[in-house]
Specification:
Layout: H1 13-30, H2 32-48, E1 62-64, E2 69-79, E3 84-93, E4 100-102, E5 107-115, H3 127-130, E6 133-142, E7 145-155, E8 162-164, E9 171-172, E10 177-181, E11 185-191, E12 196-197, E13 204-205, E14 211-214
Antiparallel strand pairs: 1-14, 2-3, 2-13, 3-11, 4-10, 5-6, 5-9, 6-7, 7-11, 8-10, 12-14
Helix pairs in contact: 1-2
Length: 215
C-alpha cells in the first residue's frame, strides 16, 4: 500500500471548503431547499477530489496505470519526449474518475518537460500533441537493464491545471503520487517496444492497482 496522504486530495481542500461554507450560508439564510444546488455541487467536488489508497500488485516488472480511467489507445508511435520508438497506452479520465496521478514504475526521473497548448477534448488523438501537457521521463532499472517509461499528463476540454511534484533526479516508487490534473484529462504512457501490454482499448483501469504492461 502506498498512501502518504489523506482520503481527500490536498489540491481539493480549498474547493471543498468553499463549497461547504457556501452551502451552510445558503442554508442559514434561505433554508436547505434553497441551498440544495449548493449541496449537490459540494458532493460533486468531494467525489472529484477523493484520493483512496490503492494496493500495489505483486507482479514482476509491472508497469502500473498512472491514472483511473478508460484505455482509449494502444499503438506504436514515436515518443517525442524521449526521442525513441515506443508503445503508447493512453488512459482517458472523465470528471468522475480519481485525478491523482501515480508513478507507474520504480526509477529515477531523467527529465520533466512542460508544454503550453490547447484544451481540446482529451479523448481525441490530437490532444496528445496539441493540448497543454507535462512529460516525466523515468529511467527504470529492470533486471539490471535500463528501460525508459514516459508519463505525460495531458489537459482536457475542462481541465485547466496540470500539477506535477517531481523534478529531474528524483527517485520514484511504484504507486507514488507525483501529480494531479483538475477536471477531466488523460495520461499517455510511452513504453519500450519490448513491453508486453496487458490491457486493451475500452478497458477500465485504476491507478496503481491495474497492470498496464510488463517490461
Amino acid at each position: 500500500m502506498n498512501y502518504p496522504h489523506p482520503l481527500l486530495a490536498r489540491e481539493g481542500w480549498p474547493f471543498i471548503g468553499l463549497a461547504a461554507v457556501a452551502s451552510l450560508l445558503l442554508t442559514l439564510l434561505w433554508g436547505w431547499q434553497a441551498a440544495l444546488p449548493a449541496y449537490i455541487v459540494l458532493v460533486f467536488v468531494v467525489q472529484f477530489f477523493r484520493d483512496p489508497p490503492r494496493a500495489i500488485p505483486d507482479v514482476a516488472n509491472a508497469v502500473l496505470s498512472p491514472a483511473d480511467g478508460r484505455i482509449v489507445k494502444i499503438e506504436k508511435v514515436r515518443d517525442p519526449y524521449a526521442d525513441r520508438d515506443a508503445l503508447l497506452v493512453s488512459v482517458f479520465m472523465n470528471v468522475f474518475n480519481v485525478h491523482s496521478n501515480r508513478a507507474s514504475v520504480n526509477g529515477r526521473v531523467r527529465a520533466v518537460h512542460y508544454f503550453p497548448g490547447l484544451f481540446v477534448n482529451a479523448d481525441l488523438d490530437k490532444a496528445s500533441t496539441e493540448n497543454e501537457r507535462n512529460a516525466v521521463i523515468i529511467d527504470a532499472n529492470v533486471n539490471g537493464e535500463n528501460q525508459v517509461v514516459t508519463l505525460v499528463q495531458v489537459a482536457g476540454l475542462i481541465a485547466r491545471r496540470i500539477l506535477c511534484y517531481v523534478h529531474p533526479g528524483d527517485a520514484l516508487e511504484k504507486g507514488q503520487r507525483y501529480g494531479f490534473i483538475r477536471f477531466g484529462s488523460r495520461v499517455d504512457v510511452y513504453l519500450p517496444l519490448t513491453a508486453v501490454v496487458c490491457v486493451a482499448p475500452g478497458d477500465v483501469v485504476s491507478a496503481t492497482s491495474t497492470v498496464l504492461a510488463t517490461l
